[in-house]
Amino acid sequence: MVRYVARRAGQAVVVLLGVSVIVFTLIHLVPGDPVRSAMGTRFDQATYDALRSRAGLDEPLVQQYFTYLGHALTGDLGVSFRSGEPVTSLLLQRLPATASLAITALLIALLIALPLGVLAGMRAGSAWDYGATGVSQVGVSVPDFWTGILLILVFASTFGLLPPSGYEPLFGDPLGWASHVVLPALAVGVVSGAILTRFVRGAVLESLRRDYTRTARSKGLRESTIVRRHVLRGALVPIVTVTGLQLAGLLGGVIVIEIVFAWPGLGQLTIESVQNRDYPMVQGAVLLLAAIFLVVNLLVDLLYAVLDPRIRYS
Predict the structure, then answer these.
(1) How far apart (Å, rounded) are the C-alpha atoms in residues 221 and 104?
(2) Coil, strand, or helix at residue 79?
(3) Contacts with 117 (C-beta within 8 Å, 6 or more apart), sequence order
(4) C-alpha gyration radius of the chain
(5) Per-residue pLDDT tens for 209-221?
(6) Are residues 282 and 273 in contact, defined by beta-carbon separation less than 8 angstroms?
(7) Considering all CA atoms of the chain, what is the largest pairwise distance in Å, rounded to the nearest integer?
């Protein structure tokens, strides 16, 4: 297990290096001058030259990259061109908002997907199956931003039950956080739940065809016991795989929803940084999102051995 984790950690380092090269190259191909953009109407040639020199933008690109990489290895992702604050601090400030939204949306998705997917898989070909499949198809087809706008119109504008936008810290004001997170989490969770429903259905159908399920039925066990102890347990590995991918994607920033609901998370920060040509912030955000994706994938892989004793890492 230890050697497996060490090998995956080494692979993650290589992936992050590749991501850093790609992002650094692409962002410097974007037209425009980040220093000129940050100065706005207060342009002064001497100040402009001093800022470019301090940011290292007057050096060759290769030297800029290795300088950035050396600082990044120590946890220093640079300073934001726009705000002048450390990139690492800004990212850590925004991470809790995105994490709380992503986890809440995933819980809503699981509450939708598990009952519908299991029901559709256990009663394949029935009206329940067609109904669950149709609901999941509608959920996948409808954009999450449209769902978000519809939720705002109904629950915020029409009935005034929930705030249309904004954010409250979870540990600072739990009730305020809950009232603000419901609508964006629903908008994202419905789409994720629709995707997960189809995978849960497929995993249940596959588990029903296994020998252990037929053996359990031949023993005369009750259907509820078969579903709980055999079908669901056998379907857990593919379900956990897709759930992990969904969580990694959500933690990567539900960009559109964060814009619609003015949610101050990583997605909104990344979009603002791209618009302002804030090179250090964009590079730091992409590296953080890539690292999150790799960590979630590793945790999901390690969870396989817990769910299925036949799986061993060597």
Answers:
(1) 36
(2) strand
(3) 132, 196, 197, 198, 199, 200, 201, 203, 204
(4) 24
(5) 888 888 888 888 7
(6) yes
(7) 85
Measured CA to CA, the distance from residue 209 to residue 231 in angstroms comes to 9
* C-alpha to C-alpha distance for 200 and 135, rounded to whole angstroms: 14
Q: What crossing angle do the helices spanning 279-307 and 2-29 adopt, rounded to 10°? A: 150
Element (H, E) at 120: helix 87-122
How do residues 180-193 score in pLDDT, each as one tens digit?
Answer: 999 999 999 998 99
Residue 219 and residue 237: Cα distance in Å, rounded?
A: 25
Residue 82 half-sphere exposure toward CB, CA atoms < 13 A: 16
pLDDT reported for residue 41: 66
Predicted TM-score of the model (pTM): 0.86
Measure the CA dihedral 284/286/290/295, to 10°.
50
Does the CA dihedral 52-54-59-63 come out positive or negative? negative
**Quick one: pLDDT at residue 181?**
93
**What's the rounded Cα separation, in Å, for the pair 267 and 252?**
7
Burial classification of residue 254, based on how many CB atoms lie within 10 Å of its CB (0-12 exposed, 13-18 middle, 19 or more buried): buried
> What are the structure tokens assigned to 146, written together?
């449209």
Domains of the chain are 2-87 (no CATH), 92-266+288-307 (1.10.3720.10)
Query: What backbone torsions phi and psi does residue 162 show, to the nearest 5 degrees?
Result: -135, 155
> For the chain, how far is it from start to end, CA to CA, in angstroms?
6
- Per DSSP, the three-state class of 34 is helix
